[in-house]
Design a protein that fits this description.
This protein has helices spanning 2-8, 14-28, 40-50, 55-68, 72-76, 80-87, 94-109, 118-122, 129-140, 149-159, 168-181, 187-200, 219-223, 284-297, 353-366, and strands at residues 239-249, 255-259, 270-271, 274-276, 300-313, 317-329, 338-341. With 380 residues, it is of the alpha+beta class. Residues 49-200 form the HhH-GPD domain.
Length: 380
Amino acid sequence: MKEKVSSLLKDFPKEKFCEDLIGWFQREQRPLPWREDKDPYKIWVSEVMLQQTRVDTVIPYFRRFIEKYPDMRALAEAREEELLKMWEGLGYYSRVRNLQEAVREVCEKYGGVVPKSREQFGKLKGVGPYTAGAVLSIAYGIPEPAVDGNVMRVLSRIFLIGEDIAKAKTRNLMEDLIREIISRDDPSGFNQGLMELGAIVCKPKAPACLLCPVQEHCRAFAAGLQEEYPVKTKSGKVKTVHLAAAVLTDERGRVLIRKRPKEGLLANLWEFPTEEADGLHFPDRAADFAERMKRKHGIRVEITGPLGKVEHVFSHLKWQISAYYGRAEGEIMETDTFKAVPLPDLEKYPFPVPHQKIFAMYQGDIGTEKGGSRTGKVRP
């Protein structure tokens, strides 16, 4: 690995590169709320939110989150359901669970102060190499690499690196590379500069090379190959799962919801009753759904009509949900994981995005009147 790094850095003007990159970042950086100070807690929260999520989406979530949990003690003491509700819509809910667990450890072991040691910080739940490098360099000015997808794309083009960025050894190579070129005077500006460059200039498609502050250092641009880099293998085929879900109201107008299992996908979030429905189509799908509800909960269900289709893609699978609305008759035996909730109280429960969409369709297409009767068009 050292030989590869040395080869890549042969005749590379490290100081001039740092000067051009950091100078550009200082002039052009976006005014983001987590850049308003060097609070390591806020920077940590922002980095966790930004994983797999666009900056524009994160900004309002970050502001609400910090207002609700202004310091680590507040976050450590938060109830899980309340925390999941605050995170609702960001997805990848294990991120916030891990963050809370890690923050609790910081409060217990380090007196509520994020440790400056990469070894200590990197051992916390959910803190990977990128998060550790980002927080330590930005908050504390420690020259640690922070290599994410944007940074790998930038480095692949600048150094004409043909290794597959989907492989761990390529990430390791780039971390070693950054350790050699990172500014010791301003590691925060260096790392954020690389991130910013990848976000707004060195984009995956049609990079704005003529606006790039480090264009003269870019080997891919010099060779006219910027569109060919980075090299990345395509991910495997995504599995599709067909589901049926229904917004069901009982005789008192309450809506039935259930809590997902404690482990696994979307753990502990609430959803409308849902069943797998592979190979079935309406009306067989609706009939099968009703039969399962009767078998599992002793409730007679009448599907009144369809709401529409909801598709949601995770990293490894895709949900295709046929959504319906209907009535539930008989006594509702409520438990900790199965409830009948008054319509206005639904906003207190954290729902995953696909079920938020189902409820929006229910409100928009069906409408509700006092007492739970329905009016309005049914989506064909």
